[in-house]
TrEMBL record:
GO terms for cellular component: plasma membrane. This is ABC transporter permease. It holds the Pfam family MacB_PCD. PANTHER family: ABC TRANSPORTER PERMEASE YTRF, MEMBRANE COMPONENT OF TRANSPORTER-RELATED.
Length: 789
């Protein structure tokens, strides 16, 4: 019986090849998107799930409660050791210190080699908590100046020579001996690295990091992990942590709340540096479902439209003894055959597109037929799509009464089928229009971001790292200024808008207590304002100095203190436990120090040479081809032991919005796919309708009907469907995108033109598709149409 079902299914597919092609293409495209989205979701959900007892592994994080709540994926440097000594909750506790873009150097074959790495100072217990096994050597990180490296790092630095026993110099200051080689880490980990150094040596890298009494601040560089003992609940641990705040930070208004973050959340919580919000994963899942659903709607639409042409077939089968269940499974088998073909097409599309997806999302997703989860997903999707797309057409076709079917008296069924097809088209149009509204709103927001006045000049500014905070830094600045094509140079803590931030408590106007809000520290020399085009609204610029003497504050600082800009001048300000203090000499116009999704922070600018991290070099872009090599030559001559690099500030600023740009690209792709699938369905449906109404079209043309009249005859129904779908899609699109825009303190609005543009676009796409098929039918020779009839 099953073999017979498949034979008939193949005959039907051959007989209706054009409609089968449309269904296979539409379902294939939708399922391909579903496979890719499933693979992306599986990729992200699989991060760090391979560690032993991963459900008991946590990272200590901090909520900083002031006038607002800030989140830090770290605790004070002294926290880890104190917690390990004070409480038995942790089976293992380990600290690491991330040293980004550090320099390691060693001699090989008489040649001095240098590499830039992201190293980790780690306590030896780190490798008890996380499953990163050794392949050779031993873990001696409990001793000073020892190191572990991965197999890939060993091959990169030492080739085929054994790495164990080799030494290298870290940051041109500290020597480390390699005592072990780690197996290469899995791709899906957020706590990995390539070089691990003894944490007992971290004080040589940064004295404050290594102090056992370092409770005065937080740096994201210090991470503390714990594997709790079996049976210990995170709430039990968090209940004792307020005692640390009271004991070590009782005088601070920057109230800390120490929390435990599960290992499974590290990848998904953007508050603590997660790569992708968990909501983004579910949005992807919903998008994948709707793309498959849209393709299924196409199938149902075409199948119900074709149903009227198969009434006599059903009538004959029923007269010959076929039961309704047999007919239902016959038509379901036809659907299953098309779905199987669609899956073959889908896997071909997914395999071909996957490299571009990995490049777009910065992932390393693979499609492996040996992956059981992919097989389970494919089988479940195949079954669901078969019944979702084929159940209703199967019930409709198998439900024909044989006498009515043979006589062709199924007007009531035809009417119901037409109403169903209208509903399905409306559903497709709603999905497409919501996606289009999202596309327009996100595009407008990205345009707003690109055109927004940031309050400073980011064009033609090259950011180059400093390599010392001494006389060499000053000398190199002077050499930069003498370079043809260089207009201005400033040495600073960071650009006006930068990921390099220092939020700190401060005291104002000789008050004994810190303010209830924190300020952003911007270390900069006296050329900072002119280099970045920042305007003064009151007072004067800083005088040149190597140490903190004077301050500039922004308008937001004055506003938060409730003082007019002119009245801020001469007031006293101090921070970092009164270590740095001086008087306010100027107020600058507000500039965006964070992405537009955040408010402008209160900030102060002051001279502090020991905190300068970057040169900001304003250049003449017409001379960039000669200026950039000249800057590199000067920098490399001054710091031959370092590795030179630079970045244009506008490119760094654009990186703030990588997530938005990625989302824009995603919605462009998905909107295009949804519209393409919908247009394929409309093309097939209108083609079927034109074939069914060939005689009517011929008679109308013989009686003088014009092409435009016939176009209107077919188009008016879709015109009404577009408006009905718009009435439902517009409120849904407005609600969803309004919620998205709420993530931004500064954003473009949603205007009536957003909906007008979306309606025009969808109308043009739909009517072009319908118009093409209808025009083709209307231009046909009526005599041939009537003769064929």
């Amino acid at each position: 019986m099953l073999n017979n079902y498949f034979k008939i299914a193949i005959r039907v597919i051959r007989r209706s090849a054009s409609y089968a092609l449309i269904n296979v293409s539409g379902l294939g495209l939708g399922i391909a998107c579903a496979i890719l989205i499933f693979s992306l979701i599986s990729y992200h959900l699989g991060f760090d799930n391979f560690h032993h007892h991963s459900d008991r592994v946590y990272r200590f994080v901090t909520e900083e409660h002031r006038d607002a709540v800030n989140y830090a994926s770290a605790v004070p440097p002294a926290f880890g050791k104190t917690f390990r000594d004070d409480y038995p909750f942790g089976e293992k506790v380990a600290r690491i210190c991330v040293a980004e873009e550090a320099i390691i150097s060693f001699e090989s074959n008489g040649e001095q080699k240098k590499f830039k790495v992201d190293a980790r100072f780690a306590e030896p217990e780190f490798f008890d908590i996380f499953n990163f096994p050794l392949v050779s050597g031993a873990n001696h990180l409990h001793q000073a100046n020892k190191a572990l490296i991965t197999e890939a790092a060993a091959r990169k630095y030492f080739g085929n020579d054994p790495a164990v026993g080799k030494t290298f110099r870290f940051q041109n200051e500290i020597d480390f001996e390699i005592t072990g080689v780690l197996r290469d880490f899995p791709i899906r980990t957020d706590v990995g690295g390539s070089i691990f150094l003894s944490y007992t040596s971290v004080g040589q890298y940064n004295e404050w990091y290594g102090r056992d009494d370092a409770w005065g601040g937080i740096t994201e560089s210090i991470q503390t992990y714990a594997r709790l003992r079996d049976g210990v609940h995170p709430a039990d641990v968090e209940a004792v942590l307020p005692a640390y705040v009271k004991k070590y930070r009782d005088q601070s208004k920057n109230v800390h709340h120490y929390k435990l973050q599960p290992l499974a959340d590290l990848h998904f919580d953007p508050r603590y540096g997660g790569r992708i919000p968990e909501s983004g994963v579910w949005i992807l899942a919903v998008v994948g479902f709707f793309l498959v659903f849209t393709a299924c709607l196409n199938f149902i639409n075409l199948a119900t439209a074709q149903a009227m042409g198969r009434t006599r077939e059903v009538g004959v089968r029923k007269v010959m003894g076929s039961t309704r269940p047999q007919l239902f499974w016959q038509f379901t088998t036809e659907t299953f055959s098309i779905v199987m073909l669609a899956f073959l097409v889908a896997f071909g599309i997914a395999t071909g597109v996957l490299p571009y997806i990995n490049e777009l999302f910065s992932t390393q997703v693979t499609l492996q037929l040996s992956d059981p989860s992919l097989w389970i997903f494919s089988i479940v999707t195949m079954v669901v799509v078969t019944f979702l797309a084929g159940a209703y057409p199967g019930m409709v076709l198998s439900g024909f009464r044989p006498v009515s079917a043979l006589k062709g008296k199924l007007q009531d069924l035809a009417s119901r089928s037409l109403n169903l097809r209208r509903s399905l088209i409306i559903a497709q149009l709603i999905i497409s229009q919501v996606l289009l509204i999202g596309l327009i709103v996100i595009s407008n927001q990205m345009k707003y971001i690109r055109q927004a006045d940031l309050g400073f000049d980011e064009e033609a500014v090259v950011m180059i790292p400093t390599a010392s905070n001494d006389a060499k830094m000053k000398t190199l600045k002077e050499q930069f200024l003498r370079t043809p094509g260089v207009e201005k140079v400033s040495v600073c803590f960071g650009a006006p808008a930068s990921r390099n931030n220092w939020s700190t408590s401060f005291k104002f106007d000789n008050r004994t207590e810190s303010e209830v809000f924190s300020g952003q520290f911007k270390g900069a020399d006296a050329d900072y304002l002119s280099t970045f085009g920042i305007d003064l609204v009151a007072g004067r610029n800083l005088v040149p100095s190597d140490s903190v003497r004077e301050f500039l504050v922004n308008e937001t600082m004055a506003s938060r203190l409730g003082i007019a800009p002119e009245e801020m001048l001469g007031r006293h300000l101090s921070f970092n436990g009164d270590e740095f203090k001086g008087h306010i000499v100027g107020v600058v116009r507000d500039f965006h120090d964070q992405p537009l999704r955040s408010q402008i922070n209160p900030l102060f600018i002051t001279t502090s040479m020991r905190h300068y991290n970057s040169y900001a070099v304003k250049i003449n872009m017409s001379q960039a081809a000669t200026v950039l090599p000249a800057l590199e030559k000067l920098w490399s001559a001054t710091y031959p032991e370092r590795i030179y690099e630079y970045a244009f500030l506008d490119n760094e600023t654009a990186q703030f919005y990588e997530t938005e740009q990625l989302m824009l690209t995603m919605i462009r792709v998905f909107s295009g796919i949804a519209l393409f699938i919908g247009c394929m369905g409309l093309y097939g449906l209108v083609s079927f309708m034109s074939v069914r109404r060939t005689k009517e079209i011929g008679i109308r043309k013989v009686l003088g009907g014009s092409v435009a009249h016939i176009l209107w005859l077919f188009g008016k129904e879709f015109y009404h469907l577009i408006l009905v779908a718009f009435a439902l899609a517009a409120p849904a699109g407005w609600f969803l995108m309004s919620k998205w825009l709420e993530l931004y303190e500064y954003h473009a609005g949603i205007t009536v033109w957003t909906f007008a543009a979306e309606l025009v676009v969808i109308a043009l796409i739909v009517l072009t598709t319908v118009g093409y098929v209808t025009t083709k039918a209307a231009l046909a020779n009526p005599a041939r149409a009537l003769k064929d009839e």
